[in-house]
# Entry
Amino acid sequence: MIGNSWDQLLNEEYKKEYFINLMNFVKNEYKTKTIYPKQNEVFNAFRYTDYNNVKVVILGQDPYHGPKQAEGLSFSVSNEVLKPPSLKNIFKELESDLKIPFPEANSLKKWAKEGVLLLNAVLTVEEHKPTSHKDKGWEIFTDDVIKLLNKKETPVVFILWGNYAKAKKALITNPIHLVIESAHPSPFSAHNGFFGSKPFSKTNEFLKKNNIKEIDWRVE
# Structure
């Protein structure tokens, strides 16, 4: 399904009844409604960031639900559309934290290739209906992904923005990993602890301390 080491790791998951039911539900949704991201981009987070290359996880809730936005990576949108407010705030914090100029581009594919798994808890959504695919089985799947990442023998940074992401902290029990928590970058909460939280420099300091190549956070 994915084409790298994730397939072997998730092989048992693919066979489970809930996952088979989930795939049947999703296929039917694509046939009868407008669903995002494109069907061939649903598993992009895994395609761009092989399990063995994961250094950082940024956890989102579900894909953007407007036309041409979602591309299968949390918080990332196509370069064809306007930047959503949360992404603007992420770039503002990036500029403040690492003095990286506010990017013209929107897509975070470069981060994914650097080893940042941009994982949404729910991987599909109906157009203009946020959280419409909540509680259909995606959360079971992505919770198991987080459990697999928790088992990694190399340190990983988990960046949890907002209460939804913070609730996943219970799955991260391995003491070699770092959890960075703050408010969500949404305009409703960014001023309550997201701005000034310096997640990018904290991540790189941790990676450097563990002799892991730091993330180049520039967006192109």
Notes: The chain has nine helices and six strands. The longest strand covers residues 56-60. The beta strands are 35-36, 56-60, 116-120, 125-126, 157-161, 178-182. The mean pLDDT is 97.
